[in-house]
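PROTEIN–LIGAND DATA SHEET

This sheet pairs a single protein chain with one bound small molecule, glutathione, given as SMILES. Inputs appear in the order they were entered. The predicted three-dimensional arrangement of chain and ligand is reported afterwards as a C-alpha cell string under its own label.
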Amino acid sequence: MAEIILHHYPQSPVAEKVRVVLGIKGLAWRSVTIPRLPPKPDLMPLTGGYRLTPVMQMGADIYCDSQGIIRELERRFPEPTLFPGGADGLAWGIGRWTDGDFFTAAIAVVFADMGENMPVELQDDRGLLYFGPGFTMAKLQAGMPDRLASLRAQFGWIEERLATGRRFMLGDKPGLPDALCYYLAWFLRERYSKGPEFLARFPKLCAWEKRIEALGHGTPSEMSSTEALDIAKAAEPEAAPASAPDDPSGLAPGDTAVVQSECVRGTAGIEGRVHHIDLQNIVLDREDPRVGQVATHFPRAGYRVARA
Ligand SMILES: N[C@@H](CCC(=O)N[C@@H](CS)C(=O)NCC(=O)O)C(=O)O
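PREDICTION REPORTED AS:
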C-alpha cells in the first residue's frame, strides 16, 4: 500500500485533528511541511488549487479536507476503530459542529487576542477566509465577550460528557469524537494568551486533554515536497470509478465539474473530470505537468459541486 503523506504545518489545528487520528491508529506516516500562506507551489499540482491545510496523499490519490482524510484512514486502517463505543455514522456530525461555529469562535478569540501582533499578511489572508470581506480586527475585538461566552458554553458540553466518568468520549478507548473535539482545546491552549486559565474551569476536559496528548501522533518521518510530487508522478490513482445514478448534481463519471468549499471564503473552485461520485465523496481526475494523472478526493458535506 502507498505510504501516508500528510501535507501540513505544525501550527495548524485542523492538521492536529488528523495527527491525533494517526496517533489513535498508531500509523507510520510521512510529513511534508507546507507554507502557511499561498502560494503553495508544491501543493497546487496535487490539489488543483485547494489551498487549505491539511491534505493527505497516498500515491496519486489526494484527499482534501480533514473529514475526507479521516474517513479514508478509517476505511484503509479499520483497526483500532474510530467508533469503539458505537456512534458509527452519527459521530461524523460532531465534526460539522466543531468545524463550524465552534471553530469560528475559537479562531475569532485567538485572532482578537493577537490583535496587531498578528502579521499583516496573515490577518489579510485569514480574515477574508474565515470572516469575509468586511473583516477588521477592531470588529473582531468588539465581539470578543460574545465569542468567549459561546466558547465557554461549547467547551462546557465536552466537560459534561466527560463528567459521566468516561476516559474518552465513547468509553475507555479513544475514537472519532475525541479527535474532532480535542483540536480546539489544543488550539486555544497553544495560541490564546489566556488559554490555559480559560480551560482550567473545565477540569475533566484538562485531564482528558492529557490522555489524548499521551496517544501521540503515530510515527511521522520527514519528507520533502519534491519527493512527494515525484511519488505522485510515479503512481497511478487507485480510486475505483463509480457513480450513483440519482446524484442530486446530475453529474456522472466523465463529466467536467467544479468543487468548491462552502465553509471558507475566497478559495478557488477545483476543476476536473468526475471519476467517482457517491453519497460521501467526489473524486476528480486531473492532469498536471508536474505530477501527471492524479485523483483528487473531496467530501460531499461542506462542498458545492457544479457542472463546469
Ligand atoms: N474544512 C477544512 C478546513 C481546513 C482549514 O480551515 N484549515 C486551516 C488551517 S487549520 C487553513 O487551511 N488555513 C489556511 C491555510 O493553511 O492556508 C478541513 O476540515 O480540512
